[in-house]
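Hey team,

Filing this mostly as a record. A colleague (T.K.) asked me to run one chain through the structure pipeline before their review meeting, and I want the input and output archived in the tracker in case anyone asks later how it was produced. No errors, nothing strange. Just documentation.

Input sequence:
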Amino acid sequence: MSIWKKLKSEDIKKVVFGALNKNANYYNESILGVPASHLDDKVFYQDNPFLEHAPFLSTLIHNPNHIGFHTEGVSESFFEGTHEIEKELIRICAEDILLGAEDAHDGYVAAGGTEANMQAIWVYRNYFMQEHNAQLNEICIICSEDSHYSMSKSSNVFQIPIRFVKVNNEDRSLSKESIKTVLNEAKQAGVKHFIVVANMMTTMFGSVDNVDDYTDALQTIKASFKLHIDAAFGGFFYPFAEEETNLNFSNPFISSLTLDAHKMLQAPYGTGLFLIRKGYMKYAMTKEASYVKGEDCTLIGSRSGANAIAVWMILMTYGPFGWREKVLILLNRTDKLCAFLDKLKVDYFRQKGSNIITIKSSNVSEEIALKYSLVPDIHKNPNWYKIVLMDHVTIEKLLPFMEELKVFISSK
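Output structure:
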């Protein structure tokens, strides 16, 4: 760990308020041409003394725009102070968490995992079109049937085909035979380039793809491909639970990753991260955004700098060791619930190193699922119900559920 270090709250405040002081100040500067301002002070009260001790809320009020990305080239100078914090955040995630080389990655704080996944597919689609003169029908998204719906949305928006790899029902692992079949069928249909998306903890099961299954098969057929990791759920959890994973930038095949800070990191909603090796963002550059200094190559365009500040503050408050400790506490709670389910002989799935438990619907009554807000895989005749051991899911909250489940299983 070289960049990410735990900071005291006073030091965090100094950094954030120092960054805001470097930003343009709408209150006392003659800023005439920027189509933005601080939050409306007739609606949002801005003179309360407690704001002196609230860096995130103060950032919301100052309202910095983080349009574009700031890890390379020039950016809008009006918000250079908070841009620097976002740049440090990207380096922490790419280098300290995902084991990338120093200053070798670009990225930005997106609106969430869906946007970040779409950004990756947009970049790689354009890469294949610009560098290989590929037609849309010659580029294909490959992902598992457990993947997030943002892959299908990307296929629709970017007008490229998508094919799904089957998974084994019991352990949710990728079917190697299905990978071969999908790749061969795609090639027979005229596909020449593949955008492959592997999962670091799927939305429903928390399952983790063995990325080597993809890369071995792709290399065998000498395929042209780019590999993206959807770590929207797992990015701030799995690397701390399973240190031996190769789902990070130490793997030379992986070009980009998605993380969501508004899941395990408990940042405000609308806070994801897109990380990619340097040299690729140019394929999404929108030169028509000529009024934006540095132009723009993000899907979202204008975005709140406050979200980047929130993620940075969370990471700096915990530090790497404090965050690992939090992950271990959640894993311990998950272990306890699994031990209970094992004792009841309940059918469930849990990926090693995950805090998600997915129970077969036959082992849970609809009443229990509704009472405890268990999430179904489909809302009509579900096959599975999901439990996520988040920070608020304490042992005290689990005990009533466990007792009712025990009674239900006994009645069967």
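Quick notes for T.K.: Residues 77-304 form a domain with the Aspartate Aminotransferase; domain 2 fold (CATH 3.40.640.10). Residues 305-344 form the longest helix (40 residues).
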